[in-house]
Write a structure and sequence with these properties.
Heat Shock Protein 90, Ribosomal Protein S5, domain 2, 4 domains, nine-stranded mixed β-sheet, 35% helix, nucleotide-binding, ATP hydrolysis activity, Ribosomal_Su5_D2-typ_SF, chaperone, ATP binding
Length: 633
């Protein structure tokens, strides 16, 4: 037996490991299993090129709990180590850069998966163990070795009687970490970090029923079936997940099965998937799924899992996956993502920028092909994916450039157009006297129904644009299309929205109009409504409430963030009350000499206009209903 001191430049490194490397001590299991996986894959490579004259076989990694002895075992069947290699890799190399590492990365280390990159993966064991043993036998024909360390710089190294190839690490779990002796805890960690590692991982056994048939040459329905229960290894991982395979080798059903493997509690099927697979100028594989999203911007993010060579790293992929795709689900796996930098450093990293740009391009290309191959199916899925695409157009210029080929603009009647199709369709009928194309839209089909119907009576097409960020998007589209403007259908009377050459003459004189406005302004609340007199068609509504497009849009943009005018989101609602001077009601109000009757007419007409805009609520609605009943007695 030999004893010695670990070659470490800090007097006692172990408390520092526990304090700085990770705030979450559970990471130790991922690191130790990763080491076992590396050792196994290296052996596979050496046997394949003839450098290791041993049978590779079907190696596994086994995790065993000894609750009574307070021990956790991690056993692999990989390369193993000789005593000299233990001395070299465990006692010297691991801590060659320890002091520099702790000084440089102590602030960011707890957020990143960097232990293994500095040779410190094995020592993460001391986060949870008061003593660690290594019993290892190399694939070379040399004696096994037994290394022991109690968390101080001292260690012992002696021969062992292990006869099988590989390494067993035994953690003597510390009193403050006994939770890691619970089956449920270890099972949870294995499923979180090691679910898709490339070597089978065994954790205990399970009972399986094997169907047996008795009798031969009998009809299928008469076969006597019995079941035999057998104990089999409980393999907790899938070593060959879908993203590691070629798209040509996978069926649509394979992609759905993998989706439910990733998200066992997700019962809805994904809408479609995008398989990422690139090996130059960086390595990246993965599968992104579009789930049903609807129009809610508050969807939970952090549903995309980041792996490095099938080892789970994090579900925070900010900076790697473009922000607008963070609402998707799936897996991204890349050995080229630097884990030894802080999250803010990721966004400045050149490789990461290339990866992000690639994902943006790949998603845009996939969407275009889906649209081209089956437009009808794409249209049916539009409402479930539009929020992602609209957000992408706003946040990623490269995506915006490609989006014109597949982003859709639905009408209130359920028809869908691309922007170019829309321009072509509306040009003849919805170009105003100044040559500007006016695109009418509604934000709520039910609430703005009367305005939609008035527009449709004129032969105009009305879009249904109801996402929470639509004001931002149409602002951007207008900026790129100077002869095009989007106007919500309730922002003014229809004749003012698309102004043609013809004008309607008012049947009220200028003096009568001035008198009418005076009457109205004395009754209509001026803090909410601005009274406007308009000479409209005599069949048009007498009172119309509109909300000016510019003010409403700026307010919406301010409320949803990222645009608009500062502070406008908190401004009270302001509306225009458009009064048709050619309506019989306008004449009746003007000519009625009974002040009470005049006021009653104005209030009733205003409430009817408010009702059509879904603005009549609470006490005002109660008073309106009561007044209406009195009028029809």
């Amino acid at each position: 037996m030999t004893t010695g001191k670990i070659n470490v430049s800090v007097e006692n490194i172990f408390p520092l490991i526990k304090k700085f490397l990770y705030s979450d001590h559970e990471i130790f299991l991922r690191e130790l299993i990763s080491n076992g996986t590396d050792a196994t894959l290296k052996l596979k490579h050496l046997t394949s090129i003839g450098e290791a004259k041993v049978e590779y076989g079907n190696p596994i990694i086994e995790i065993k709990i000894d609750k009574e002895g307070k021990k956790l075992h991690i056993i692999d069947q990989g390369l193993g180590m000789t005593a000299d290699e233990v001395e070299k890799y465990i006692n010297q190399v691991a801590f060659s850069g320890a002091e520099e590492f702790l000084d440089k990365y102590k602030d960011s280390a707890k957020d990143s998966g960097i232990i293994g990159h500095f040779g410190l993966g094995f020592y993460s064991a001391f986060m949870v163990a008061e003593k660690v043993e290594i019993i290892t036998k190399s694939f070379k024909d040399e004696p096994a070795a037994h290394w022991t360390c109690d968390g101080s710089p001292e260690f012992t190294l002696e021969p062992a009687d292990k006869t099988t190839r590989g390494t067993e690490i035994i953690l003597h779990i510390a009193e403050d970490s006994l939770e890691f002796l619970e089956d449920s805890k270890i099972n949870g960690l294995l499923n979180k970090y090691n679910k898709f590692m490339p070597i089978p991982i065994k954790f205990g056994t399970k009972t399986e029923k094997i169907e047996q048939k008795k009798g031969e040459e009998v009809a299928a329905e008469d076969v006597d079936k019995t079941f035999t229960e057998v104990e089999v290894d409980n393999i907790i991982n899938n070593p060959n997940p879908a993203w590691t395979k070629q798209p040509a080798d996978l069926t649509p059903e394979d992609y759905k099965t993998f989706y439910h493997e990733l998200y066992p509690m997700q019962f809805e099927e994904p809408l479609f998937h995008i398989h990422l697979n690139v090996d130059y100028p960086f390595n990246l594989t993965g599968i992104l799924y579009f789930p049903k999203l609807g129009s809610d911007l508050q969807i939970q993010k952090d549903k995309i899992q980041l792996y490095q060579n099938q080892v789970y790293v994090t579900d925070n992929v900010e900076g790697i996956v473009p922000e607008f795709l963070m609402m998707l689900k799936g897996v991204v796996d890349s050995p080229d993502i630097p884990l030894n930098v802080s999250r803010s450093g990721l966004q400045a990293d050149a490789a990461v920028k290339k990866i992000s740009n690639y994902i943006t391009r790949k998603v845009a290309d996939k969407l275009k092909s889906l649209f081209t191959e089956n437009r009808e199916d794409f249209e049916q899925k539009w409402n479930d994916i539009k929020i992602v695409l609209e957000y992408g157009m706003l946040s990623e210029d490269k995506f915006y450039e490609k989006a014109g080929a597949f982003v859709l603009y639905p009408t209130v009647d359920g028809k869908f157009h691309t922007l170019e199709e829309l321009k072509e369709k509306l040009a003849a009928n919805q170009t105003d006297k100044d040559g500007k194309l006016v695109v009418l839209y509604a934000g709520n089909k039910e609430a703005q129904h009367s305005y939609i119907e008035i527009a449709k009576d004129k032969g105009y097409e009305v879009l249904l644009l109801d996402s929470p960020i639509i004001s931002h998007l149409i602002q951007k589209i207008e900026g790129d299309n100077s002869n095009m403007t989007f106007v919500r259908v309730d922002s003014d009377h229809i004749d003012n929205l698309i102004k043609k050459e013809e004008t309607t003459i008012s049947k009220l004189s200028e003096e009568e109009q001035t008198n009418l406005k005076t009457v109205l302004e004395a009754i209509v609340p001026k803090q909410t409504y601005s009274v406007q007199l308009e000479a409209l068609d005599s069949n048009a509504s007498p009172f119309i409430i509109t909300q000016p497009e510019f003010m409403r849009r700026m307010k919406e943009m301010s409320q949803s963030g990222g645009g608009g005018m500062f502070g406008m989101g908190n401004m009270p609602e302001m509306y225009n009350l458009v009064v048709n001077t050619n309506s019989e009601l306008a004449t009746s109000i003007l000519n009625n000499k009974d002040k009470d009757a005049q006021e009653s007419l104005v209030k009733q007409a205003l409430d009817l206009a408010k009702l059509s805009q879904n603005l009549l609520k609470g006490e005002a609605l109660t008073a309106f209903v009561k007044r209406s009943f009195e009028l029809i007695k």
